[in-house]
Amino acid sequence: MDLVVVLGLCLSCLLLLSLWKQSHGGGKLPPGPTPFPILGNVLQLDFKDLSKSLTNLSKVYGPVFTVYLGMKPTVVVHGYEAVKEALVDLGHELSGRSRFLVTAKLNKGFGVIFSNGKRWTETRRFSLMTLRNFGMGKRSIEERVQEEAHCLVEELRKTNASPCDPTFILGCAPCNVICSIIFHNRFDYKDEHFLKLMEKFNENVRILSSPWLQVYNNFPALLDYFPGIHKTLLKNADYIKNFIMEKVKEHQKLLDVNNPRDFIDCFLIKMEQENNLEFTLESLVIAVSDLFGAGTETTSTTLRYSLLLLLKHPEVAARVQEEIERVIGRHRSPCMQDRSRMPYTDAVIHEIQRFIDLLPTNLPHAVTRDVKFRNYFIPKGTDIITSLTSVLHDEKAFPNPKVFDPGHFLDESGNFKKSDYFMPFSAGKRMCVGEGLARMELFLFLTSILQNFKLQSLVEPKDLDITAVVNGFVSVPPSYQLCFIPI
């Protein structure tokens, strides 16, 4: 028992010394709640809804404050002005990516999302250039999305208006679009390997958003020596990497350096032509995994939440269908040119993204060098959390922010109204690489569904629960069923 007491006192002294050094030495961190020894502020935060906890703390400590996740300080930035200053005005200084323990084990510092420094710069630049070369932001990718939208509609017809859970069907469509860019082929919606891959991605998003994983991230011993859902996460990640590696091996056998077919071919060619340590088979697999996951799960989760909100608000769905009938009709596929003539539909899609607040606390950033932020001096390596909730649910920009109202993006004349507060894809140097593709998919997939089907809930709209089941890494909608009634 004496040993335990001594150990506790030593750890407490270490924490107090750390706090003193940050206040009087290497950095003057913003104020925040007093942390407990070892645990930091973990007991003062609700990891089921971390964003809400941070909002409550901002009311006490202001738009910039410090919390301790374990023994490590994290600066929280809350509110539009502070978030914009952090992500845009100080975009370079805050462009680092925090190395959370789980993501470090998953990606080992490679890829597009969680890499840093020169590796991140080169991988991101190459990925953007390659994606653009294969049509992202161009007419060619729009045609691919339209083709996949047609496949999606045909798959929904096969439900024969019977009750179904749309999770996997809505996941297959955006996944196939990114597959066409990465692998140069799509998968049948009933393909066994494809469905298993989708299942692994879906499960990992739920795990990453779970309260327990937030705890695991801040206490290394739990990761290495205790069982838990993080083991399933790592196992699923290995399955995904092995799937990708098999595809890479297939590409290596058929590689034609003069005729690259997709992202993997381009990466392999760069590996052959340049002696660059940032471009290896390991970095290729992780970059593909990043693009695969980001290009699939975020869009499919948004689509799933979209249909749930339209079931909850049938009057909104009916008005969108009226606009589709007037602008597009029944005899041609929706195209991106239609969006400018469909202000209400555009407003609905923006409001869906605003309301669901898909990434409440954004992906974690880190300070790349000592920086002065407002009246504080934040040392290099400090983790930064930017609250996207505080921007998307700002009462000044969006009256009644907790109410789903497409009017938030419409002016008095019914025209679409842009907002600087619309930040679902983040902002600055680390903003989402696939924003253009995601916005295209949301418009074309949703309008194609509503052009062909009436959405029918199994319960009264007033009884539908639209509350996210978890608000961790991602806001995950509750499970539900619906009927797709052909029009």
TrEMBL record:
<dbReference type="GO" id="GO:0005506">
    <property type="term" value="F:iron ion binding"/>
</dbReference>
<keyword id="KW-0472">Membrane</keyword>
<keyword id="KW-0732">Signal</keyword>
<dbReference type="InterPro" id="IPR036396">
    <property type="entry name" value="Cyt_P450_sf"/>
</dbReference>
<keyword id="KW-0349">Heme</keyword>
<dbReference type="GO" id="GO:0016712">
    <property type="term" value="F:oxidoreductase activity, acting on paired donors, with incorporation or reduction of molecular oxygen, reduced flavin or flavoprotein as one donor, and incorporation of one atom of oxygen"/>
</dbReference>
<feature type="binding site" description="axial binding residue">
    <location>
        <position position="432"/>
    </location>
    <ligand>
        <name>heme</name>
    </ligand>
</feature>
<dbReference type="GO" id="GO:0006805">
    <property type="term" value="P:xenobiotic metabolic process"/>
</dbReference>
<dbReference type="GO" id="GO:0006082">
    <property type="term" value="P:organic acid metabolic process"/>
</dbReference>
<dbReference type="Pfam" id="PF00067">
    <property type="entry name" value="p450"/>
</dbReference>
<dbReference type="GO" id="GO:0005789">
    <property type="term" value="C:endoplasmic reticulum membrane"/>
</dbReference>
<keyword id="KW-0492">Microsome</keyword>
<keyword id="KW-0408">Iron</keyword>
<dbReference type="InterPro" id="IPR001128">
    <property type="entry name" value="Cyt_P450"/>
</dbReference>
<dbReference type="InterPro" id="IPR002401">
    <property type="entry name" value="Cyt_P450_E_grp-I"/>
</dbReference>
<protein>
    <recommendedName>
        <fullName>Cytochrome P450</fullName>
        <ecNumber>1.14.14.1</ecNumber>
    </recommendedName>
</protein>
<comment type="function">
    <text>Cytochromes P450 are a group of heme-thiolate monooxygenases. In liver microsomes, this enzyme is involved in an NADPH-dependent electron transport pathway. It oxidizes a variety of structurally unrelated compounds, including steroids, fatty acids, and xenobiotics.</text>
</comment>
<keyword id="KW-0560">Oxidoreductase</keyword>
<dbReference type="InterPro" id="IPR050182">
    <property type="entry name" value="Cytochrome_P450_fam2"/>
</dbReference>
<keyword id="KW-0503">Monooxygenase</keyword>
<comment type="similarity">
    <text>Belongs to the cytochrome P450 family.</text>
</comment>
<keyword id="KW-0479">Metal-binding</keyword>
<dbReference type="InterPro" id="IPR017972">
    <property type="entry name" value="Cyt_P450_CS"/>
</dbReference>
<dbReference type="GO" id="GO:0020037">
    <property type="term" value="F:heme binding"/>
</dbReference>
<dbReference type="InterPro" id="IPR008068">
    <property type="entry name" value="Cyt_P450_E_grp-I_CYP2B-like"/>
</dbReference>
<feature type="signal peptide">
    <location>
        <begin position="1"/>
        <end position="25"/>
    </location>
</feature>
<keyword id="KW-0256">Endoplasmic reticulum</keyword>
